[in-house]
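Me: I keep going back and forth on a fold encoding question. No explanation is needed for now; the record alone will do.

Assistant:
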Amino acid sequence: MASMLSVQDLYVSYGAIKAVLGISFDINEGEIVTLIGANGAGKSTTLNTVSGLLKPESGNVEYRGEQLVGIKPHRIVGKGLALCPEGRRVFTEMSVAENLEMGGYTRTDAENVETLKKVFERFPRLKERVSQVAGTLSGGEQQMLAMGRALMSKPDLLMLDEPSMGLAPILVQEIFDIIKELNEQGTTILLVEQNASMALSIADRGYVLETGSIVKTGTGKELLSDDDVRRAYLGG
């Protein structure tokens, strides 16, 4: 079976700093795949490169067999990939409604009306706060808004960068429940997450990054029970 997303021998640098050192991985349709590792391991850099925000020094990123390197980010969104970035990055001066509209800019108005209904069904709090300025939302509500904005483009592959960062434990569980629901309803997920135990518990497969290189791969269950992974990332 051909991979939905294939990253091959990817090298990415920030000036003299080598951030990603020749990583390769694949995601199949319908999977949840997670990248785990310490800060600075290259996880966010990888997502930003796949989504077209960064240009690699070398290597390939293919989505459904089509080369993505060199394609502008908005064109990549139009092909069915969406990134929910680290730190939420909502437009703080704009309303909830305006933020969501920004997420649907690659779709038609008719499509956006239908998608917005589904976003409000999934995130009823956003519907309650539709006119509220995004900067006045709680951290959890801003995370829901960032996810809702990404979902407005109706992605087949949703990339989530640290969705639980800074959230209270009860909200972390809620966000992970939503990720599982999205996957069960057909969205493929690429997840970068500091909370490695939560990420691996819902992932079909995982890749462990250290200083820009993949050092381990396996199913979520295999990595959860791996002694090295437990010591390094799971506090065990």
